[in-house]
Design goal:
5 domains, microtubule, Mod21_N, Spindle pole body component, mainly alpha, cytoplasm
């Protein structure tokens, strides 16, 4: 019974100390009974001290066996120094249970931190005394009046021989009591003013059962909620490691039920979590400049929220007569002015989750803001639209700064190059390919340009504008960057401009409005006095003159120059002169004939003679003509249009033209002159008749081919001149040239898909040379079969060419080939 009484008394004191409930309270008896029951059920058996001693000894021995004598000695010395108390075995048992690989984790250096360093107290000095009580009072230096029981009375007899001292009391001060005047201005603090705050803090910090929730006034709950929204620590809310705000304690108010109160506090906790996330996100270090601008815009939004919270708090600090303390009203008001921030937070959180922490994950954040701004505009939510569009425009303005530099000067940015939509592809590429190979678009995995969604419609325009500036810089035309006011241009992309446009045209969607703003923005980056690339190509480079020169040199556009060149060349071939394959002689011949055309620079022409397996040094003259390769040096600016310095189509057309002209030269009347035959032409009979008939048919065929060649060359040359003159840039010029080159190659039968037709035409042209040899041997018996065989080959190849041209013209829609096929079939029939 004595033990039960002791336990009961201890439980009574324990309940009174921890809960503050007295014996008069109705809940005191139940609480004490539950406490006594818990103490009885919590009893456990004591550990075996001998077992603990043996385990410690075994651990010391284990350390020694494993060659850790230092740890074993340190453990043994501390075991020996332990006091002999009843709880030592229990403490050692707990430490043994908590130990985890003691041999690997033991470090003797950790024991140094447990040593207590004794520091002796410092001696008192005059500096310390003066620091606490400065000797600035005038009474300190005054004369001491000896009063009753003064020690001076005892020394008066012995100090009669001393001289009197001079008084140190100041004579310039008045006799007013400054201390009394100062006391009149001292305000004593009222300790009772913070009584309510201390009471609330003690109530909230005191541990209680879930069934015994403390009661709080609605005003104090609003005060705690406002502090949480500001990011300050509170007793009612706690912030986790991930920035999530949660309810930390249970309470109740007199004006609301517990479920309703829990729901309202949960709403506030959710809002607080979003605000904590935004505040932390705006303080992150990001390398992208446009993200930093978005962070600044979001920080401005949170600053506006803080101002609204301050106004809300001011209303309760200095309440008016009409001020109503309502938690529900506060929740509605807070939800209203934090709604835009909550939406921004959800956008940023979704973007962070999608990017998996990758800061350089394209422009997903800008794209998400752009999409949400369009949705908010369509929904007519102006407050939400202003917040999202403001953050979007802040990021777009910063992103467009390097874009503006690229379009004005043609220089790539030096920072954040991986996030720019243009990359340096080949820095040391030839000048003739610099437009097409030096720069390239930076593409993502989906073949989309590495740029925000709002900039995608202008990518090709911006890409060409920057390349144009870089191209002009190489031509000596430096861009005047001072002509463009960058600051005013960037300032146009502001919420004020957007709001003004939406006011004047409220039915325009935001995406169309932003596209219109960007279009005006990019249009204003070009100064009206800036030299354009089209002007440089047409006036300074004189592109049209170079194209006319190519027509005169390769395609025989100047007939007189062509006749002068072919006449001299074919005469050398007929005489069998060895100079015809001398490239220096041929170069001088071409420069003096073809180079005499008005549009041709003679010094740019060069001739070479090929000698390889495909072009043997011996054989028929028509095959030897294919060895002559003509080249014309055009400027590197023109090469960016033609995409080639060798001009293979023009070289092949020149080779075909030589073979056509030589065939016509061989079939001339001078060669087939009856008077020059060394035998009686009347005796030739049928062979002569067949030869003359084949000659007429060959002349007819060559005439049609020459007419077709001249028509195609003239038509395409005129069309090329007009198209190039109306082109606005090198890209369009190169596209026009590529189309011209493709059609010219097809119409002249130089394309690979019509190679059999070209072979048949060349075979017919070579028949003229074979017919010349047969003409000189008409008196032989083999002349008639040879001429008959050539006539059969002519008919066969002619029918093949006509049928092939008909098929190709129907498939490709080339009217020139269809007309050629009709002429060949009609005349052949």
């Amino acid at each position: 019974m004595a033990h039960a009484a002791i336990v009961g008394e201890l439980a009574t004191n324990l309940v009174r100390c921890l809960t503050g409930v007295t014996r008069d309270d109705s809940t005191f008896g139940g609480t004490r009974d539950r406490t006594i029951k818990g103490l009885r059920e919590g009893g456990r058996g004591r550990v075996n001290p001998f077992e603990i001693r043996d385990r410690c000894a075994g651990l010391v021995e284990k350390f020694g066996v494993l060659n850790r004598d230092d740890v074993a000695e340190a453990l043994q010395s501390r075991l020996d120094s332990l006091p002999e108390t009843r709880w030592i075995p229990d403490i050692l048992s707990l430490l043994l249970q908590l130990s985890d690989r003691p041999l690997e984790s033991a470090s003797l250096s950790d024991l140094d931190g447990l040593k207590r360093v004794f520091s002796p107290p410092t001696e008192l000095s005059w500096e310390d005394i003066v620091a606490d009580d400065p000797l600035t009072d005038q009474d300190v230096w005054g004369e001491v009046e000896r009063g009753y029981h003064s020690s001076g009375d005892e020394e008066a007899l012995d100090g009669s021989d001393s001289e009197p001292t001079t008084s140190t009391q100041a004579t310039s001060f008045a006799d007013d009591d400054f201390a009394a005047l100062a006391r009149l201005h001292i305000v004593k603090p009222d300790a009772t003013l913070l009584g309510d705050v201390r009471t609330v803090r003690e109530t909230l910090s005191r541990p209680r059962d879930n069934t015994d929730a403390p009661t709080m006034s609605e005003l104090n709950l609003i005060r705690e909620t406002i502090s949480m929204l500001r990011g300050l620590p509170t007793y009612l809310f706690s912030v986790g490691s991930g920035g999530v705000v949660s309810i930390s304690s249970t309470l109740c108010i007199a004006t609301a039920s517990k479920p309703m109160l829990y729901h309202v506090r949960s709403n506030f906790a959710e809002i607080g979590s979003q605000l904590v996330f935004l505040r932390h996100w705006t303080q992150r270090k990001r390398s992208e400049a446009y993200v930093q601008s978005i962070q600044a815009a979001v920080q401005s939004t949170t600053g506006t929220i803080d101002l609204n919270i301050g106004r809300l708090e001011q209303r309760f600090i200095k309440p008016s007569d009409s001020c109503v303390v309502s938690l529900i009203d506060v929740r509605i008001e807070v939800e209203d002015f934090t709604r835009a921030a909550m939406h921004l937070s959800s956008i940023i959180v979704a973007n962070d989750r999608a990017s998996n922490g990758n800061e350089s994950a394209s422009f997903a954040l800008l794209d998400a803001l752009y999409e949400e701004a369009c949705i908010a505009d369509m929904a007519g939510d102006k407050h939400l639209f202003d917040a999202i569009a403001g953050a979007l425009l802040a990021g777009v303005r910063t992103y467009l700064r390097p874009v503006l530099s690229w379009t004005i000067s043609g220089d790539l940015p030096k920072q954040d190059t991986d996030a720019f939509f243009v990359r340096l592809d080949e820095e040391d590429c030839p000048l003739g390919e610099i437009w097409h190979k030096r720069f390239a678009l930076r593409l993502e995995t989906n073949e989309r340009a590495c740029a925000p969604e709002a900039i995608q419609p202008f990518i090709q325009q911006l890409y060409a504008a920057g390349k144009e500036k870089a191209f002009l810089k190489l031509n000596g035309f430096e861009a005047d960057e001072s002509a463009v006011d960058v600051v005013s241009l960037i300032a146009r992309l502001s919420m004020a401009t957007v709001t003004e446009r939406l006011t004047t045209n409220s039915l325009m969607p935001f995406n169309e409005l932003l596209r219109e703003l960007l279009q005006d923005y990019f249009a204003d980056t070009r100064s009206p006095n800036t030299t354009t690339l089209r002007t440089v190509m047409l006036e300074h480079v004189d592109l049209l003159r170079h194209t006319r020169a190519l027509d005169d040199v390769f395609l025989g556009h100047d007939g007189m120059s062509l006749q002068a060149f072919t006449g001299s060349l074919f005469s050398l071939l007929q005489r069998g002169s060895s100079n015809w394959h001398d490239k220096f002689f041929l170069t001088r011949l071409v420069q003096s004939t073809l180079g005499a055309a008005p549009s041709v620079h003679g010094h740019c022409i060069n001739v070479s003679v090929l000698t390889d397996d495909n072009h043997p040094a011996r054989g028929p003259i028509s095959r030897q003509l294919a060895r002559i390769k003509l080249a014309y040096a055009v400027p590197w600016t023109v090469q960016n249009v033609t995409r080639s310095a060798d001009l293979p189509t023009y070289s092949a057309a020149f080779s075909l033209l030589l073979q056509i002209e030589y065939a016509a030269y061989v079939l001339s009347s001078q060669t087939f002159d009856l008077r020059k035959l060394g035998f009686g032409w009347r005796s030739a009979g049928p062979a002569l008749q067949e030869t003359l008939s084949l000659r007429e048919r060959l002349i007819w065929f060559i005439g049609i081919i020459r007419s077709h060649y001249g028509t195609v060359v003239t038509t395409h040359a005129n069309g090329l001149q007009g198209a190039l003159e109306s082109a606005d840039g090198i890209d369009s010029m190169a596209e026009i040239w590529a189309t011209h080159d493709k059609h010219l190659r097809l119409c002249l039968l130089l394309a690979s898909n019509v190679a059999p037709l070209m072979d048949a035409v060349k075979h017919i042209l070579r028949l003229s040379e074979n017919l010349e040899d047969a003409w000189l041997s008409l008196d032989q018996s083999t002349s008639l079969p040879a001429v008959t065989r050539m006539a059969a080959e002519f008919d066969k190849n002619l029918a093949f060419v006509a049928a092939g041209l008909r098929s190709v013209s129907r498939a490709g829609g080339e009217t020139a080939l269809e007309a050629l096929a009709e002429r060949l079939q009609w005349n052949a029939g």
